[in-house]
Amino acid sequence: MRTSCEPYEEPSAFSPDQLDLLKEVVGVLSEGFQRLEDIQKLEQRNLELETEVAERLRVEEALKREYVLHDAEYVIRVAIASMDRPEHLCHVVKEIGAQLDRVGVTHDSCTIQIVNPEGTDFVSIASYIHAEWYDEIMTFIATGTRNAARSHAEEYPCNEYRAFYVRADRTLASPEAHHVVSVARYAA
Predict the structure, then answer these.
(1) pLDDT per position as a tens digit, 95-107
(2) Bridge partners, 161 (sequence order)
(3) Of 89, 156, 146, 142, which is closest to residue 121 (Cα–Cα)?
(4) In sequence order, which residues have a C-beta less than 8 Å from that of residue 75 and are 6 or more positions away?
């Protein structure tokens, strides 16, 4: 018989060794869950850092592109500002072409069109002016007119004619060449 002074111990379903083993398993599981939570936090932080790096790279590329565009504009402005004779337009055209290449614009050639004050005629200035056309182009730049005898308007019923044919390699091109620089005379 039991007296009220004696402590009562409930019978255990587990032996002391089993309880020690269960405590150890609980400790290992607790540590495992903590590591899993730490890994999830690290993965979340890694994702945040990857997003941040991607954004920084995007901003860096945008800044580089902006710098290249700004620098290209500056180079072209300097070429224009350094002109003191009409034939220096050829240097400007070369710079424009080079800067278009630099910023990644695909193009076959580059020209500047100069239109007469009436808007009825123009010439195209390429990176090189063939000697045969030099005087006529410089006259056109100065006066807005060209030698009527050199006009090919009659040959082209649509009022378009070729003013000069210059390839990038400084050779004359035939009128059939697709990259021929053309000058149009608009019907009055």
Answers:
(1) 999 998 998 888 8
(2) 183
(3) 146
(4) 95, 98, 99
